[in-house]
Amino acid sequence: MGSSTRDQLDKRPTPIFRQRLEFLLLTQREDVLSRAKVVISEYYLTFKQFPSLENAGTGRELNNAQIVLIAQEEKESIKDFSGRVEVLLQRFPRSWILTVLHESSLRENLAGTQNDRVIPLSPSEFFNTLKFEYICLQKARSQFFEMAPTDLFPMTELPFTVSVRLPMNQKFLGVAYKGLVLSETKYQRLKAVDSIFFQIQDGPSYYRYINTYFDASGAALKKKARALFLSVCSLWLEMNEYLLFDFKSNSEVKVRECYTRLLEQATALIDLMATEESLWDVFRESVQNDLFVQFRSPWIATYAALMCKKSGQGDPLVAFISGLFADVGLFDISDGTAAKYLQKGDKDLNENESKELSKHPVLSLNRCLIKKLPLNEAVKSVLVTVHERHDEKGYPNQVPADKLSLEAQAIRFAGLIDLGVRTTMAETGVGFRFMKEKLWEKEQSAPGSFSLEFLNSIAESLI
Predict the structure, then answer these.
(1) In this structure, are 92 and 232 located in the same domain?
(2) CA dihedral over 238, 241, 243, 244, signed as positive or negative
(3) pLDDT tens digit string along 102-127?
(4) Are residues 280 and 411 in the same domain?
(5) Between the CA of residue 265 and those of 143, 228, 236, 275, 397, what are the distances in Å?
(6) Global pTM?
(7) pLDDT tens for residues 439-448?
(8) How many Å apart are CA 296 and CA 96, to the nearest integer?
């Protein structure tokens, strides 16, 4: 992780104590421990380490560990290793089980697990890519979204559990449970709390609640836009559970069902973009946690769709879905190159890093196809041309300018906007609108990366 990301994390409130056990290491393999502790130290994850489950003993703290990591030993068969995993699933009913396979197992016919709580990683995925860092941040630090107490109404039935975060140990405590009617007394107590939370997996339920009790104007419209954005983030994370990992599988029926729900939420979000309200800042400020500081696809997808919708150029739904999955291939290149690109863009990459990065558009498409995402042909085409340029100097194929779609240009411009949020705005304190305008002026004064036709068409949509 680079200094830019670290600076953003350091600006967030840090608890005096973090007593919640985030990581339990149950392995003797030095290579696995060394890699795990790099990520643990980067994000100050609380952890405990034991050679095996037998050495760990018992205790409520251990039983509630958020992530349990074990590694297959060199001469351990897949059958025996799977047996150990089954024991852990029973011993730690609330934990995510992260398993690191041994190189020798890759020669076997591995169908992949469909158990929701098991995340298997190949040696390459664990040691060489961002997948391990991603899953650690998601499972340890990104299980809740923040909401305002005024999002709730008394005497309504809650479709999700409302939690508060305890300041001393950062644990989340449920205080108003799913399915119960929120009493006036409970509502007044919640209004006195600075922040309340709901689980990320309940993003779609949160949106349905907001959509039911708020109208579509002014501040209420912005609440709906944020709720839809959070719902999309929730579904994106759900799809990533099996999309990113080689040995994590799901049935085609479930993949299609999740993708259909994602399309429905994306369509509703795009419909809101047709209003006169400016939603740029709503989306920019929607989420802050350790995972989303670094992995930004939902913002890039949303900014691209917003430009297409407001300008009337291109298909905003194609731009949105393409933007959401355009960087999937970054998880299949080295973590050093991928992290450097995510933090600073492609300007500071050396020759070898640039060559490696140029492979990721095709890798993104390939992973989506292998995992059987039902993408249409327009999205497939955009996925492999997001990094092409109007002057035909992009990658991976230097496509002719007349073959470069408006959606692909919108996604790449959205990526520059998001990079500006995390660099220029964070470093100088300039406003969001000012930063977007200066970025547009820079590209317009030196055309080549984008066509003048595209830049002129999106000018007013940036306001």
Answers:
(1) no
(2) positive
(3) 887 765 545 556 688 999 999 999 99
(4) yes
(5) 20, 7, 11, 17, 33
(6) 0.93
(7) 999 999 988 8
(8) 23
